[in-house]
Amino acid sequence: MIFSALLLGYIPAIFFQEPEETELEVAQRKVVELEAELGPDHIDLAEHLDVVMWVYSQQGSLAKAAEACQRALSIREEALGSEHPEVGQSLRNLATILNSQNHFSEARPVRERVLKICEKVFGPEHENVAIVLVELGTLLRTLGHYSEALPLFERSLAITEKIYGQGHAKVANSLFALGEALDDAGHYFKARSKLELALEIVESSKEPLPGAVTMISFALAGVLKNQGAYAEARPLYEHVLGSREEELGHEHTFVAWTLNEFGEMLREQGLFDEAIPILERALEIDRKHFESDHPYLAESFFSLALMRTAQGNYPEAQTLFEQALEIRENVFGLEHPLVADVLHYLAVNYERQEKYDKALPLFDSSLEIREKILGSDHPDVAESLNIQAVVLYSDGKISEARIALERALKIQERALGSEHQRMIGSLEALATVLETQRDYAETRPVLERVLKICEQAFGPEHENVSVALLNLGTLLRTLGHYSEALPLFERSLAITEKIYGQGHAKVANSLFALGEALDDAGHYFKARSKLELALEIVESSKEPLPGAVTMISFALAGVLKNQGAYAEARPLYEHVLGSREEELGHEHTFVAWTLNEFGEMLQEQGLYVESQQMFQRALKIDKASFEGDHPYLAESLFSLALAHKAQADYSAARPLLEEALGIRENAFGPEHPLVADTLHHIGMCCENLGLYEEADVFFARALRIRESTLNPEHPDVAESLNIQALVFYYGGSFEKSRAAYKRALDIQEKSLGPNHQAVAETLHNYAKLCWRLDLIEDADDFFGRSLKVREKTLGSEHPSVAVSLSIRALILNLQGHNVKAQNFLERALRISENSLGKGHPIVAISFNNLAGFLAEQGSFEKARGLYHQALRTSLRELSLNLGGLTETDRFQMLRERGGPENLLLTVAALRGEIPPPSFHDLFREHPGD
Questions:
Q1: First-to-last CA distance in the chain?
Q2: Which of 757, 656, 663, 750 is nearest to 712 (CA)?
Q3: How far apart are CA 95 and CA 75, in angstroms?
Q4: pLDDT beyond 80 at 631
Q5: More confident residue, 8 or 445
Q6: For residue 358, how far is the Cα from the chain centroid?
Q7: Dihedral angle over CA of 749, 755, 761, 762, nearest 10
């Protein structure tokens, strides 16, 4: 609050000693007599007019007091000249009355004239000049002209120190005045040092200085509050409040002033239960003492309005703000910092209600006043810029919001220092804007700085620290740095549990965040337990938590999908999809997100038609919602590409994957796990198209990214090791291939458990390597384990089960179990046709496998028909993919595929030009099996 009296009482009395009440009549009669005797303009009348002025002033008749003062001033100017010391005294009296009438703009030229007279009469370094400088500076503070006030206070201090020395009580008064002005101007560090020095002087002074310690302590508490040093400010506020209640009584206006300031600090700390009764008591006191248009009453309205906004009671807050605004505009004019404050927070009140059309013009008006009156580098200007940025962001003007926030931060750094807690809001808002612009690399240091400031300001176990940890951890997840994110989420959860207890909704939020991070890091069992606990908390919570069940259910479904627990995941996905369509509409981006995740699970189960429909719908939604370079669009492109890849349409899958790759590299950088995922699947497409050299490049880069960004035990690393093992195999490096498979299997069994489909795939591939190395017993063991896991996790009718059955039949044939082998091959063919359709290359392999077996048994006619069907299927695959290749790539694919595998073997067998191929010769490694 800017209304403060000079506290030490050393300024010469402006008025004469207070007369008895009857002196008014005596003075008025004396004026009448002297007018009759000496005339209306005689100098002797001025002294008695001063008495009349003083008595009227004491009675509250300020208009009559001003009239008497003006007349005394005119008489003295006429008799003594315009620059006489007594004229200066009359001008001081008039300025004081104008202040009391809240006519601050009219008082300014009067104060400036007093200063000019004092400088001329007493010289520029006289004590009276120091006094008048403080009076003019105080008026300028009241008018909000802080930058103009500061040099006056600094000059006054210099004069006083020169006259009295640095430890004198009058120097303390000048330090106090300068400290308050520095506080107003936002120079909190300088203000604190001045006020601490002033307090030190008055506390050690031997002369009585009534009220001095209390007033300086109150000002110092305000500076500490502005610095965010709440622990230091609180005992000062409590001391001041106690002193004023004891000295002035519990209903004094200075008590109300103290209550308002103390209550505002408690509100800033979030201690609403303590703050509310304090602020309400202040308003009650001020209503008893002041008329409805007094600025002290406006202060109480304003403080309580801030409290109501913080509570979410927006209608009551708006009424209180509007009452404060009307008073302040009437008292101070339309361009005062205190008016700007009300406009600012009234706009905040509208912004919290998402009424941006009402909020933005108020923010603009507040910012205009603050820049004009306070200067462009004041912390209050930064505050206006911050909130203006929030509204701009909400209105979709992201670049403009960023400019406003970056300017606000520069102002705050200059005024507050680089680690002040008032910067937290600016930094968090900037981080949000940067994330929206997908400048993730720039976002990280911003959020790291927020965490550091929170830890220093609030201590390592404060709720704000927990929130900062969550925000930073979420960014690290986005960047793919899962191992760095995990300890942040774990620490956040520990803090939240300590503050709220284990069953609180905020704990559920921390569990949810940790569960998602564990899922990213490949710790699916731990992720599942955290998410299930979070879901249990929110489902049993008595407070409304909109969207919480849906979001946690979605995350849990994803973990179940990663675990291969499809039967448990499906009803969760269906529930989430239905809820989001109902709550958000069928074309919302969250619906597309759900469709992609659900579709990926269906595809893993071999339900290709259902999954592709979901992917196509998701892509349509995202194309309508996002620009061409948005990560969400990349997700839909990626999912649809996998659907084409699963159906052997590699030429259609590859361009979709390459488009997704470009988006992900631009959004997340070239070393992100999502980039690795995309590279991996492009490599698989290239391999299936016979482009092995290209495939090796993509696979190698994917593995390097995964090993450098992920935990070495992450399942995605195992996936890349599987591909690396296959590359080694094709290159003839069988021992390297075996080591890669072994490492991949160890990772998967540890992270996924022994019954996951990814484990089955590695066992299958490892078994084929053992077969190639003539380790038949090992191959039989691995094939058998793979088949059991696939049947358990994917169901008995999944195409991967068909592949396992075919290979298992080969082993049985070698062991002489021909009937069982034929049953397995016939079952494999039936599963493949039913799940994939007759045009899929895996169906061609099944035809060939059964044909080779039958030919070996002498059933050439049956075999020939199967070879014919295999040929049609192979030609269909070629026609599907050759059109999307360059001429060179077409020849390479035909060269790789046209050897002793599908085409030439089946054609020759159909013509009878060569003996039918052996069943065992038909064993081929189908990429991705």
A1: 76
A2: 750
A3: 17
A4: yes
A5: 445
A6: 24
A7: 20
pLDDT score of 504 more than 50: yes
Contact 639, 647 (CB under 8 A): no
- Tens of pLDDT, residue by residue over 322-333, are 999 999 898 888
Would the pTM count as exceeding 0.85?
A: no
Largest CA distance in the chain: 152
Name the residue type at position 625: S
**C-alpha closest to that of 858 among 801, 915, 808:** 915
- Gap between the Cα atoms of 479 and 667, Å rounded: 10
Q: How many CB atoms lie within 10 A of CB 33?
A: 12
- Count of Cβ atoms closer than 10 Å to residue 820 Cβ: 14
Indicate the burial class of 83 (C-beta count within 10 angstroms; 0-12, 13-18, 19 or more).
Answer: middle
Tell me: pLDDT of 177 over 60. Answer: yes
Confidence class for position 31, pLDDT limits 50, 70, 90 = confident
DSSP annotation of 15 = S
Q: Please give the structure tokens belonging to residue 266.
A: 């408690």
φ/ψ of 899, rounded to 5, equals: -80, -140
How many residues does the structure list for the chain? 929
Cα torsion through 905, 911, 917, 922, rounded to 10 = 40
d(CA 350, CA 366): 14
- 508 C-beta neighbours (distance < 10 Å), count: 26
Task: State the Cα–Cα distance between residues 846 and 557, nearest whole angstrom.
Answer: 34
**pLDDT value of position 396:** 76
Instruction: Give residues with Cβ within 8 angstroms of 413, minimum separation 6.
Output: 423
> 282, 259 in Cβ contact below 8 A?
yes
> Are the beta carbons of 920 and 794 closer than 8 angstroms?
no
Q: CB–CB of 125/87 below 8 Å?
A: no
103: how many CB neighbours lie within 10 A of its CB?
Answer: 16
What tokens does 903 get?
A: 């085409």
Is residue 107 within 8 A of residue 95, CB to CB? The reply is yes
Rounded distance between C-alpha atoms, residue 109 and residue 546, angstroms: 60
On the question of pLDDT at 190 being above 60, the answer is yes
Of the candidates 311, 282, 313, the residue with the CA atom closest to the CA atom of residue 297 = 282
State the amino acid at position 779 in one-letter form. Answer: A
Q: What's 192-251 look like in SS3?
A: HHHHHHHHHHHHHCCCCCCCHHHHHHHHHHHHHHHHCCHHHHHHHHHHHHHHHHHHHCCC
Handedness of CA 7, 9, 15, 18 (dihedral sign): positive
At residue 863, what is the residue type?
A
From 611, 609, 595, 605, select the one nearest 566 (Cα to Cα).
Answer: 605
Report whether 237 contacts 268 (CB < 8 A): no
DSSP letter at 335? S
Name the residue type at position 382.
A
Q: Are 690 and 896 in contact (CB under 8 A)?
A: yes
For residue 22, the SS3 value is coil
Backbone φ and ψ for 639, nearest 5 degrees, come out as -65, -45
